[in-house]
Amino acid sequence: MRIRTVVLILAAVLVVAFTLLNWEEVTRPTTLSLGFATLAAPLGLILLGLLGLATLAFLAASASTHTRHLMEARQQSRDLQAQRELADKAETSRFVELRQHLDNHLRESRQREGQAASETEQTLSRIQRELRQQIEQMQRMMSMRLGEMEARLGARLDEGGPGHAQGSNGSARSATTVLLRDEAPRADQREGFDHVVQEDSQAPR
Asked: What are the tens digits of pLDDT across the range 191-204?
């Protein structure tokens, strides 16, 4: 209970007790002047009535003020609740937009990575196919050359004698050595190219 209410109750109790103790004096008639007329009436009762009316007016004004404050507080509470709901909705919408943006970004990144991986695989497959074709072509050419050399050596061996055969064998060895020397850089190039292709295929995507 508030202190103001306790003080009002104590004051009312004191006024009632004082009135009851002096009831005869309060109700005793007295000549009163109203300025334009005179009358006989108990002055104590009139003052007591005026005090009661003033007390009622004060209580009514206090209740009205308290009610107005309560209404304003409720209105402010409703406004704050509405603003809080709007802020929560705005924050939720921002989170949803941010999540959608992140999802779209991740989806686009995955699509780009998939396209890059597909293009890399296609490029590697094409390079390997071209390299295989070149190797097969070089093998065919080497086979053809070796076949021609064997045919020539056989023809010379058939035409000449044993001495000529030894000379032909020496020339065949020198020709074979030259051919292998010519093919060695190409083999090194192919091995280096295969190594680069393997590194590209094993590199992290």
From this structure: 554 554 455 455 44
Question: Are 41 and 23 in contact, with CB atoms under 8 Å apart?
Answer: no
Contact 176, 149 (CB under 8 A): yes
Q: Which sign does the torsion angle of CA 130, 136, 142, 144 carry?
A: negative
CB atoms within 10 A of CB 107: 10
- Total domains in the fold of the chain: 1
pLDDT tens-digit map of 54-75 = 888 988 998 899 899 999 999 9
Which residue intervals of the chain are DSSP H helices?
3-21, 23-26, 43-159, 162-202
- Quick check: is 170 in a domain? yes
Task: Tell me which residue range forms the domain holding 183.
Answer: 124-202
- Map tokens 């006989």 to a residue: 40
Taking the C-alpha atoms of residue 140 and residue 98, their distance in angstroms, rounded to an integer, is: 62
Backbone angles phi, psi at 27, to 5 degrees: -95, 5
Residue type at 110 in one-letter notation: R
pLDDT confidence of residue 26:
80
